Every structure is written in C-alpha cells, then in structure tokens.
User: Fold Sec-dependent nitrous-oxide reductase from Christiangramia sediminis.
Amino acid sequence: MKNSILYIFSLIISASFFSCNNSENSKNGDRGALASSAAEKVYVAPGEHDDFYAFISGGYSGNLTVYGLPSGRMFKEIPVFSQFPTSGYGYSEETKPMLNTSHGFIPWDDSHHPDISQTEGKLDGRWIFINGNNTPRIAKIDLKTFETTEIIEVPNSAGNHSSSFVTENTEYVVAGTRFSVPVPQQDMPINEYKGKFKGTLSFISVAPETGRMNIKFQLIMPGFDYDLSHPGRGKSHGWFFFTTYNTEEANTLLEVNASQNDKDFIAAVNWKKIEEYVNNGGGKMMPAEYAHNVYDDHTHTATSTMKKEVLTVDPTEVPGAVFLLPTPKSPHGCDVDPSGEYIIGNGKLSADLTIHSFTKMIDAIENKRFDGDAYGIPILKFEDVLAGTVKQAGLGPLHTEFDGKGNAYTTFFISSELVKWNVETQEVIDRQPNYYSVGHVMIPGGNSAHPFGKYAVSMNKITKDRYLPTGPELEHSAQLFDISGDKMELLLDFPTHGEPHYAAGIPAEIIKENSQKIYKLAENKHEYATIANGDARVERDGNEVHVYMTMIRSHFTPDNIEGIKVGDKVYFHITNHEQDFDVPHGFAMIGANNAELLIMPGQTKTLTWEPKKVGVWPFYCTDFCSALHQEMQGYIRVSPKDSNIDLSWSLGED
Ligand code: K7E
Ligand code: CUA
Assistant:
C-alpha cells in the first residue's frame, strides 16, 4: 500500500515540474519564422470555410460546441443536457420534455464523449451521440439541424462514462457504468459493496433509417468501475472493449484502495453473440424506470415516455461472450486501432502502454487458455494476449487516437505531452508538450476504420498563463497540431467552453451540404402553430390563455393584447413566418420566469408567462432582424384578478 501511495505522490510531483518547464518554454517560445508558417496553416481567409468540423464536448456545461479546423473558430453551442437561455432550449414548453428523467426534470448534466455515426466503418455524418454522465443518459443530435432530437435515460447505471461510442454500422451506441451500484437499486449497507454491487453495460440499438434509440439489452457485470470503451472494427467488428478499474471492488478511499491490483481488466464483449442470444429469447426482463425523450422536427415538439422494463443478460449464461484481459494499472482509455487488431489500454498509473492483440485473444479463447475467472467470467493470461508494450512513453497515459497511417497518438496527463508512436513496432516517433495537462486528443475520424490524419487536437485541463487572465476562472485550452509530417507541429491554441473531454471531427464536406437552412412553414405540424396570419388570435380557457402569435420582419401579430388578468397562465405560441435562411426572431416578455425564445424560420415555440402585477407590460424581439428590429415590440395589458375586461387583440390594423 505504501508503495502505491509513494508512486502516486511521485507522479504528482513530477506533474508540477513538467508544468513549470512548459511555462518557461511558452514564454521564451520560438516565435518568428516558425510561427508565421504555423499562422498560414491555420489561416482561413475572411469568407472562406474551414476544412473540418470539430464537435467538442462541454463536460460540465452539459452541451456540445462546434468548432472549425484549422481556424479554431467556434460556430455554435448545441444545447443537449442543459437549459440554454440563448435559444430557450429546456425553457420552452416544446423542449422541456427533453430534460425529463425518472428523477424528474434535470436541467444539467456532465457530457464527455461525442461520437459520430458510421456506415461500414466510415463517418457518415448523420448523427452525433453524446453521454450524460451524472444522471445516465445518451443524447442524439441530428447533423442536419444541429439540434438535440433524442435523449434516452439509462437505468441501472451510475456515472455513465464508458459511453457513447458507436459500432461500425451504428448498430449500437454503447453506454457503460462507471460507478457500480445495487441492481436493481435498493436500500443496503455501502460496505457490502463487494460482490453485491453490479456494473451494467448497455447496448442501445439505433434504427438504421430514423436513428431511433432503444435499449436492446443490458449486460450485468461484476461491480468494477467501467471507465472507457471502444468498438472493435474490421476483423474485430462484433466485439466491444471496456477498461475497468477498482477491480478490488473497494467502496472507500478509492485513491488508495482501488490501486492495489497490479492489473485490472479490459472486458471484451462479443455483442453479436449476445444479440443472437437475446434475439432467440435469451435474457431476463427486469422492471426499471427510465425516460425516453424524442423531439419531432414537424411538430417542433418533444415528448417524454417513461419506460417500465429493460432486458438484462447475465454474462455467465452466454458462454463465449465475455472475457477479461488483464491490463496494468487502473487503465483509463481503451482504444482500438483502425484495423481492429490492436486494443490499447492506457494504464493511468503505469509508465508503459499495453497493447493487446485481437488475433491472440481469439487464439487464446479458442484454445481455452484461461487463468481463472472473476464471478464466472474467464480471465485470459496477460502474456497470451499481449501484442507489445510502448516502454516509458510518458507519465499518466490517458487516451489514444490514430492517423490511419499506422501511427498512434497518446496523451499523457502527468508529463503533459502528446506522444506519437508506431502501432506495429511500438516505437516512439515524436513527442510534443501540451500546455497543460492534456486529457483527450482528437483526430477527425479517430474512432473509425478511416481516420483523416491531418490534424490532432489536444484538449487540456489546465490553462494558467496561455491567455489573458480572466480572474480565477479560466476557459480550458485546446491545441491544434499538424500531424501530416513525421513530426507533429503545434499550430494553434484556442480556448474551449466548459470542460472538453473527448471530441469528434469530420471533414466539412460530409455534412455541410446537408445542413438545413429553414423549417418549411407548410410542413409545420405544431399543435398551436399559426400558419395563416389571419388566424392569429387569443383564446381563454379558465385562467389559461393561449396566444396564437406570428412574427415576420418586423412585426408581431397580435401586438396589443388586453383582457389578461393577474393569476392567468399565458402561453405565447409563436410561429416565425420567415422562409429565408438566417432570419430568426426572438421573443422576450418582461417578468417571465424562464428565458427568451429564439425561433427559427418556419418554427413554432411556446413561452409561458404568469403575470403577477397589474399594468401594461411590453414584449419585444431579441434578435436584431432588420432595420426596424427596434420597432418589433408589443404590449400586454394586465388587469386585476376580478376585472371583467374582455379579451381583445390587434391584428395590425390602425
Ligand atoms: Cu479521460 Cu471523461 Cu474520456 Cu475526461 S475522460 S479526459
Ligand atoms: Cu425580429 Cu428583431
């Protein structure tokens, strides 16, 4: 025990040394000729477009940000798990159901790993998936509209971290639990964790046409911490690999107690075998409660359905489906090279990188060369599956990506560097410092059979002196490298929003032509849409008032409403009648306890307002939409609760 504490201490101390060194470097940094050639490489002339989209997770912002590469310019923040006042996501009546869970309305999450849909191992650019860690959920964003269109909660999970990675035809998006818990949940002593808590690995099927998600099955695994995962591909398609730590099954002082075993495991799951088993009636339905939220582009409205059961699979009942590969030492990242042969365990407390061979693994399984079992799951022998080791590559390896040219790029958190090495020979080719303490690295297409090995983006945890100071709280910092040559070249620093963990990049041409420009008004099926201007009206139903409103440059119809009373609940259902690209209008109502709405052309959104004070209260458009934007305004007259003023409204006549 002492040893491991000392070891961790020495890692922490070396981390601070490295940081100091880096800081020196940056101040005396090599500006000049080098810098100007780097500047040219990231320069995207005014009006020109970037070559790649980068979708960078927001971590504790709960959202996903969209950047261009190589410029590092941010284009959009896509709200996913968090309420977003900028557009009204999670505030509008239409989008509130997106954030519904079995725990009620949850306006936030911690999102880590975006992954783009694939067809035959290639990025197809249809959807991007991302996990919510805290209240386990998987979200799907449609890359036509760049809007979150589906969120499914994952029951029997906690700390949904080894998520959300897709298989090579997007058959499944996978969600593994980081914290094992009682399954099903129950009231029990925490110190009875060992043997009683379980970790679930959920395989969520994705319908090929619609992308609709559905939990196909949950594998109930031993109570380890399932940290990261990646799919097999090519020869290993049909398998999925998960790193584990805390195979000690400690429930307290994990920083020491979960670092006892010399090796933890990578769990190899043959999902095709389990799929066959459940298709033939295998598995057990278990009562569960989880929300499935779906947004419809035509009704512009989300619905939330509470599901009541989930199909579970005991791995010991499907022989040949799950195996454990010993892997040093509390591995974090679990990465599979583009050929599908090599499975890399980034043992975060180890100085070496472990590379397993898929071929050797299959061979060992076929010859039944096992080294005992854990809760009935066969353990393979380390030497039997090992393809090789990258020796002393750095300190604190976290994640690895690939360039499609036979090279791997591993991040080292403690020694704060990006290390390039050859996958076949396991020799280190190059190393570049990161400013500071890198987490993930992203190469566009890095989690696919066909990466685009031109750029790598490292996402760093510590910013310190890289930018002008902004008080104690700083944005995180990403660094863009040109990886087209033998040596990596640092091109650019750019700040990122929230805490990026992973990111997913894709050549712009795969998605930009499909990017939707407007919603067609004629296809608007919203329950409260006002398609014809003459249909704008106000209706009362008890103390509920429904305002059917339209907006077009630069007018609201109606723009004056009387007969509203204190104690009413007013629903503004507003339809944007514009049919031109990039002409949203906003809507803000004084005293509303939510946010503004930003409404896209052809779309309907609803804001709720509960007036509390008598008076005449204005509303206005929040988006500068025309030269007469400042004139885009209106009034609501609010009378006392017992007044008998009739509802009336103006339709644009004088
Ligand atoms: Cu390493 Cu959540 Cu992928 Cu952060 S995780 S770095
Ligand atoms: Cu509409 Cu400003």
Q: What stands out?
A: Residues 554, 585, 621, 623-625, 629, 632 surround dinuclear copper ion (ligand 2) (CB under 6 Å). The domain at 524-650 is CATH 2.60.40.420 (Immunoglobulin-like).
